[in-house]
Amino acid sequence: PPLETGGASSPSDVMTAASAVSSAVTVHQVAEKVEGLGQFVMKTRRTLKGHGNKVLCMDWCKDKRRIVSSSQDGKVIVWDAFTTNKEHAVTMPCTWVMACAYAPSGCAVACGGLDNKCSVYPLSLDKNENLAAKKKSVAMHTNYLSACSFTNSDMQILTSSGDGTCALWDVESGQLLQSFHGHAADVLCLDLAPSETGNTFVSGGCDKKANVWDMRSGQCIQSFETHESDINSVRYYPSGDAFASGSDDATCRLYDLRADREVAIYSKESIIFGVSSVDFSLSGRLLFGGYNDYTINVWDVLKGTRVSILFGHENRVSTLRVSPDGTAFCTGSWDHTLRVWILMC
Amino acid sequence: MPVINVDDLTDKDKALMEVNQLKLEVKLERWLTSKCCEEMKEYIQERVEEDTLVKGISEEKNPFKEKGGCVIC
């Protein structure tokens, strides 16, 4: 559409017109000659049972075998995914523990939800020790905690909240180090850039926007608004130069940070339920999406095609993370279970 | 404590926030999309052979192999 010549154009009009005029190059066009992947099927190799209600969040430990998960009934459980044994369990004082994260050292976990806080629990080697006694309240928001992540160390935590902000906290003192304002509605998710690419993170919200932030200045560096509904999940591409998002609009999208635009949409007419969670395989060739229709769709990032649809969960898939070394991925569901999936030769 | 709650912002506040953000972003230097996608393709191709969720994993190397049990040959 041509730019308005008379009258005032808002910066937003100018931006929209400009991106429509420039050619819509996507990753798929550039990857036309790349060999397609065959159809392949990942299988569940572990099912973790023990939560009494919907699993809302999970995170891997750097040791590639332990997992922390949190659920609607207030329980946070640490599992050994190799043996399926529960190593620790703690009951939070609130229900809907929507966020949990493993500390980089493997020695603590963070979690929170309807209590509007993020709390850190050091993990004791003594199984009999009461974890709840050592609890440390770190973050305080004015609405629910939707996501949390330790930064490169156990010393700082990044949080996102229904109050529309993200915040960076010092774990030891509970001090607010930086807050991030820019979303016009609840922030639902966040992901830290891979450490090599510097101090930024991306957040997604109910305002349909994905924002990229400078952690030191608190400034929003870039923002993307192409989704048609809430963004439930954001995840950096392994190189840190792009990120994927999953939304209630039933699509996953890929945004390149240097081009400053959306470069791919992963969708099918037959997929009409929202995406709750996304993550990449090690090389970035595959994008996994957990959906509200109980399935996992596996996308070829380059070709834009779906290479697999995985069944197994008996309710919404609410959370999905690839393991730190890329050998497996784990899903959590409203069916109370977690599953660990791999691809056999 | 974070200083704002979005519920307290008026529509005008939110619109102003958006316009200020766009003014910042207009100054960004952008790469050509084709170049970015080309680099993405190369990045993947350099690493895809080691990606066990694409190539698969053998039972011996599988950290989540079937637990115990007997096998009837």
TrEMBL record, chain A:
Gene3D superfamilies: YVTN repeat-like/Quinoprotein amine dehydrogenase. Keywords: Repeat, Transducer, WD repeat. GO terms for biological process: signal transduction. SMART domains: WD40. WD repeats lie at residues 48-89, 138-179, 180-223, 224-265, 275-309, 310-345. InterPro entries: G-protein_beta_1-5, WD40/YVTN_repeat-like_dom_sf, WD40_G-protein_beta-like, WD40_PAC1, WD40_repeat_CS, WD40_repeat_dom_sf, WD40_rpt. It comes from the Eukaryota. It holds the Pfam family WD40_Gbeta. May interact with RGS9; this interaction stabilizes both proteins and increases RGS9 GTPase-activating protein (GAP) activity, hence accelerating the deactivation of D(2) dopamine receptor-mediated signaling. Belongs to the WD repeat G protein beta family. PANTHER family: GUANINE NUCLEOTIDE-BINDING PROTEIN BETA G PROTEIN BETA. This is Guanine nucleotide binding protein (G protein), beta 5a. It comes from Oryzias sinensis. The lineage of its organism: Eukaryota, Metazoa, Chordata, Craniata, Vertebrata.
Automatic annotation (TrEMBL), chain B:
It is a lipid-anchor. Pfam families: G-gamma. It comes from the Eukaryota. Keywords: Cell membrane, Lipoprotein, Membrane, Methylation, Prenylation, Transducer. The keyword Acyltransferase does not apply. GO terms for molecular function: G-protein beta-subunit binding. GO terms for cellular component: heterotrimeric G-protein complex. InterPro entries: G-protein_gamma, G-protein_gamma-like_dom, GGL_sf. The keyword Cell membrane applies. It is found in: Cell membrane. Residues 5-73 form the G protein gamma domain. One of its GO terms (biological process) is G protein-coupled receptor signaling pathway. Belongs to the G protein gamma family. G proteins are composed of 3 units; alpha, beta and gamma. Guanine nucleotide-binding proteins (G proteins) are involved as a modulator or transducer in various transmembrane signaling systems. The beta and gamma chains are required for the GTPase activity, for replacement of GDP by GTP, and for G protein-effector interaction. This is Guanine nucleotide-binding protein subunit gamma. It comes from Oryzias sinensis (Chinese medaka).
